[in-house]
Specification:
The complex is a heterodimer of chains A (about 290) and B (about 475). Chain A is of the alpha/beta class and about 290 residues long. Chain A is built from ten helices and 16 strands. Helix content of chain A is about 30%, strand content about 30%. Chain A has a seven-stranded antiparallel sheet. In chain A, strands 11-10-9-8-12-13-16 form a seven-stranded mixed sheet, with helices on both faces. Chain A starts with a strand and ends in a 13-residue tail after the last helix. The chains are: A alpha/beta (about 290), B alpha/beta (about 475).
Chain lengths: ~290, ~475
């Protein structure tokens, strides 16, 4: 059992949890993810690590409510438990594998979209702790969905926030801001990390390819076990079959077939919709989901 | 001697085991086979000739004293029967159900020459079930030696190694990556073949009763490394029983379309996550017409699971029925239940609609050519025989390749060109001092009983290593 120490609602359907998970915090690195399972009946849900404190043994995750299972999780409170938390899974970010000298030669722009802002955080913090400054673009659909801006501002980085509906910050989407930084501010980036919805990563990659900026993306594919066993997370990277859980989650964004990824991500949409409806309607659920003939 | 003198023992035919009727069981997940009752077991046991030089024992990967335990059944000495089994096997209720007895112990039975061999598997299962239902627990005196051994994985290899080491006095901890114990027994083999609550859990509990600790949600190589286990946590030896690995795909066009699953994913959603049950949250997809590609036990399990979830289910296999690698009993059961076999047929392309959902599999007919290096006749494509089989879901049951995760994160652990961990066949020792390996991680995908045999072998290897250290 893994206890929730702190819960903080960050925005619309976006909740931050601090969890006691000592073993994981001692071994995890930026870029890796974990799998949580709420209870006996729960799904195994992969979530990227947002922050970790190896001394206190506390792991921070951000959960976006997108279906029944994540809705149930976001109803948990401080003092409640996850039955299972396992990790760290996947490979650490390339940035933590290279030397400080190599890092200093990089001019990096991080782009986080929606809940994808969370996994950007430990990477920027890692660089910040090494005294390496970078640019960060934080994007969201609306002001209510923009998260962790204050936390980023405490790090050694320039933060550019934007919203698609222009309710806050610069005018989104994130690619607008990226273009502005490259074209107007004449910043020469030689490394980009983009994490967010597949559609966002797709358009960021199209743009960075134009400007010849190597771009790393983190793939939040469908997963079951997260250890290489099921193959649900498979995707084509440069024409090769890869598993996001053990080969990733970070890949060269210019080699990813995002259209295929998006189609595969939608695979369980019907089932997820039904489960959510059932959860919301509770005992009054009697059809309308197209399955039970109601 | 036996109580069954009044019934004439039929030496040619075994006592038929009662099963759920095919039509009924095709719609539920309850166990197919009911097993023997006391009378049936005694009657079947009395068929055993108790050979002086029993061939059946040679056919058993763990060397079970088969005629002895059968003799005890005949005499209704069930405590002695289970004691005899426990000398060699820690998971008899499981082996009695899933071992390929027809190619092992039973294939060597003398009665098999003229008629049907003794139903050894069903008798083993009977004994284990009887012992569990009547609380005939193992009484053993364990003298702890204070030496710590870590085991990676709680599947059949890990459990059997843990059992033997615990009995020898070692302080054993099993680390399991998933949230549930049992490995393939839990995520892979379906409920209707191997009930989880009734059979797997009690067998795991029996191992725990020997003092073995099991920690779930710990991935060795990720959460903790082997180096940390040995250098910081005081484990003097490690046994790697991490199981099979990544599912193989055919690498044909359209294979990443929606509706194409690995058997591992489909079975894990069904067995481990209980996706077919309304009260569990994990979704599982089942089409109206499902094609399962492959002919092994995993293919049969996937096909029979899809069938139970309401699909018209086809097995597509590139060789002929005779070459199906699955156990004869599984093929027989699958057919009885209504699984359709399209043999000598191989997929060459997956066809999807504009939303990328699979609508058909393009296949080509095959014929059997010359035998390959394993003596199996090689399937050869028949030119011009391409045709489409309509379907809305495809399950790939083509086997697995070793999981690179642990070797990649363990300095000095050597693998061969196939990715299997290099080891000494006798001692099971790897290239790293104090680290041993067994089961699918060592030899690639095999059976539960071979994994158990490997676990036992490793226990001896580890004991010898630590005694001489």
């Amino acid at each position: 059992m893994f206890k929730i120490i702190k819960k903080r609602v960050l925005g619309d359907k976006l909740v931050l949890f601090d969890i006691e998970a000592e073993k994981i915090t001692k071994s995890c690195l930026p870029g890796q993810f974990i799998i949580v399972k709420l209870d006996e009946q729960g799904e195994r849900i992969p979530l990227t690590i947002c922050d970790y404190d190896g001394v206190k043994g506390i792991l921070t995750i951000v959960v976006q409510e997108i279906g029944a299972s994540t809705k149930k999780i976001n109803m948990l409170n401080e003092g409640d438990f996850f039955q299972d938390v396992v990790g760290p899974l996947g490979n650490p970010s390339d940035l933590v594998e290279i030397t400080d000298d190599e890092l200093k030669n990089k001019n990096i722009v991080f782009i986080g979209g929606g809940v994808g802002v969370a996994p950007i955080y430990p990477q920027v913090k890692y660089l910040s702790n090494k005294g390496i400054k970078c640019d960060v673009i934080l994007g969201a659909r609306t002001k209510d969905m923009l998260i962790l801006e204050d936390e980023f501002k405490k790090l050694n980085c320039n933060v550019y926030s934007c919203t698609d509906d222009e309710s806050y910050g610069l005018k989104g989407p994130v690619t607008n801001v990226l273009k502005m930084l490259i074209e107007d501010k004449k910043i020469k980036y030689n490394h980009c990390v983009a994490i967010g919805p597949a559609i966002m990563m797709k358009f960021v990659c199209l743009m960075t390819k134009e400007y010849n900026i190597p771009t790393i993306v983190s793939m939040n594919t469908i997963m079951v076990d997260g250890t290489g066993m099921c193959g649900a997370c498979r995707l084509m990277v440069g024409g090769e079959l890869k598993f996001a859980c053990i080969d990733g989650p970070e890949f060269d964004g210019h080699k990813i077939n995002f259209d295929e990824v998006m189609k595969r991500q939608a695979q369980y949409k019907d089932e997820e919709g039904r489960a959510l409806l059932k959860l919301i309607e509770g005992d009054t659920h009697h059809g309308g989901c197209g399955l039970c003939g109601g | 001697m036996a109580d069954v003198d009044y019934v004439e023992v039929n030496m040619a035919n075994r006592v038929k085991v009662r099963e759920q009727e095919a039509k009924v069981r095709a719609k539920n997940f309850d166990e197919v086979c009911f097993g023997y009752n006391e009378e049936e077991a005694a009657l079947e046991a009395s068929r055993c000739l108790h050979c002086k030089n029993p061939k059946c024992v040679e056919g058993c990967p763990v060397g079970l004293h088969i005629p002895d335990f059968i003799e005890h059944i005949k005499n209704k000495e069930y405590d002695k029967a289970i004691e005899t089994i426990h000398l060699s096997s820690s998971l008899p209720a499981i082996c009695g159900r899933v071992c390929p007895q027809e190619t092992q112990c039973e294939s060597k039975c003398i009665l098999g020459i003229k008629g049907e061999p003794v139903s050894i598997g069903k008798l083993e299962r009977f004994t284990a079930d009887y012992a569990r239902e009547h609380n005939l627990t193992e009484k053993i005196d364990i003298k702890k030696n204070g030496k710590k051994v870590a085991i990676v994985g709680s599947g059949p290899a890990g459990l059997s190694c843990a059992t033997d080491l615990a009995k020898l006095g070692y302080d054993v901890t099993i680390f399991e990556a998933l949230h549930a114990t049992g490995g393939v027994l839990t995520y892979g083999i379906p409920e209707f073949r191997l009930p989880k609550e009734k059979v797997v859990k009690p067998e795991v509990e029996n191992v725990k009763k020997l003092g073995v600790k099991i920690e779930t949600n710990v991935i060795i190589g990720k959460t903790i490394t082997i180096e940390e286990l040995m250098n910081e946590q005081g484990f003097e030896a490690v046994f790697i029983a991490s199981g099979a690995g990544l599912p193989m795909f055919m690498k044909i066009p359209g294979e990443n379309s929606n509706g194409i699953f690995s058997a591992n994913e489909f079975l894990t959603r069904a067995n481990l996550m209980k996706g077919y049950r309304d009260d569990y949250d994990t979704p599982i997809k089942v089409g109206k017409k499902v094609i399962v590609v492959g002919g092994g036990n995993v293919a049969m399990d996937a096909a029979r699971t899809a069938l139970r979830l309401g699909a018209e289910t086809h097995i597509v296999y590139r060789r002929s029925e005779k070459e199906l690698p699955a156990r004869a009993e599984e093929v027989h059961h699958a057919k009885e239940e209504g699984v359709i076999f399209d043999v000598l047929c191989n997929p060459i392309e997956i066809i999807a609609d504009d939303k990328d959902n699979v609508i058909a599999v393009k296949v080509i007919n095959m014929e059997l050519g010359e035998p390959d290096e394993n003596g199996r006749r090689k399937p050869v494509e028949i030119k011009g025989s391409e045709h489409n089989i309509e379907c809305d879901m495809v399950i790939m049951a083509l086997g697995t390749t070793p999981n690179p995760m642990l070797p990649k994160n363990t300095k000095g652990l050597e693998t061969n060109n196939k990715g299997c961990i290099v080891h000494d066949d006798e001692t099971t020792a790897t290239s790293l001092k104090g680290v041993f390996v067994g089961g699918d991680a060592a030899i690639g995908a095999a059976t539960v009983i071979l994994a158990m045999g490997a676990g036992k072998k490793a226990a001896i290897g580890i004991d010898n290593y630590l005694k001489n250290k």
